[in-house]
């Protein structure tokens, strides 16, 4: 890459990432990119529903846009009391850049209410490591109707 092209790429990447991410993220998901112009961004989306009795699997969606082939996404589910109740770690080697994942919750260990997905995208390019905290996603799990 020529020197002038290298200077131009960092200026164009954030705009391109926002345009692509706006089309890639589902409705209700929030896309966040790095402020330094590296181009790493991602989103998560929790699914609202019912917090059933017993232990059940619940789903969330995710997506990442990264300029490298090496990334990981750390996702934590936080319950209404602020306690982390589930977590997931995704790697580029075993997961697609967008997809759906499951986590387990047990009704006896948490309560219905507003839950939060906290996520952190980590990219590596050679010796350079970048950590991008993603915007938190909120969703509600209601008590079952009796």
Automatic annotation (TrEMBL):
Keywords: Signal
Leader sequence residues: 1-24
Protein name: Secreted protein
Organism: Nocardioides abyssi
